[in-house]
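User: For my dataset I need records formatted as: sequence, then structure tokens, nothing else. Please produce one.
Assistant:
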Amino acid sequence: MLYFTLNNGIQMPVIGFGTWDVRGAEGEKILLDALDVGYRLVDTAKMYDNEKIVGNAICRCGINRNELFITTKLHTPYASYKKAKAGIEESLNNLQSDWIDLMLVHEPYEQGIEMYEAMTEAYREGKIRAIGVSNLNEKRFEDFIRKCEVIPMVNQVESHVYYPELELKKKLEFHGTIMQGWAPFTEGRRNIFAEPILMKIGESHGKTSGQVALRYLLQNGIGVIPKSSKKERMRENMEVFDFSLTDEEMKQIKKLNEGKSLFGWY
């Protein structure tokens, strides 16, 4: 596994396991499979309503908690300083952990700074090891950092070959913030696995189009959190560190950029 070093010195795996639709007993089994395959970053959120099964998987997997990196996020019901403080404690209980590795403000909320202040306090108390934001475009991010005391360690945003947000990544890098991409496979908005350019490049490396799509983001310095319920696909998504895309291949993939969100975020 490779790691990013966040702006506070904490190391975060460059690839993680997304859990946005992981639920119930079957979801807990999926999480245990992901951890068994080798994932060490698990991305959850209040909005996903699955912190408890993530907590159960953490306890059942047999992996030392220090080896895991757990991300969660606060959304609308916690949109105030007081509610965010309560939400942090709730997440700690749900995850059955003494700390959260990374907590994000899930979306651009009017009360986002209040929520972030509560997270900053918990960060200074050691309850959270790193804090950040999610779904902030360049303008919103610049406005946000003018008002907060601690520069976000991470901004988690939509990022895939059709909308990699490379310019945003450069701006975040300038401030020492890591960009992490959700929906690296577009969540079905595009049939990325049948994309001719990715398939052709994959053939030359003995890799799948999905692996090429992940590798493209990783080589651009963008973290990824793919999700799959099938163990063989989980393993495939992790096998992206034994090859590199050439400069020419990177240029070919860059042409897929459509310059707009597939989810209507901006």
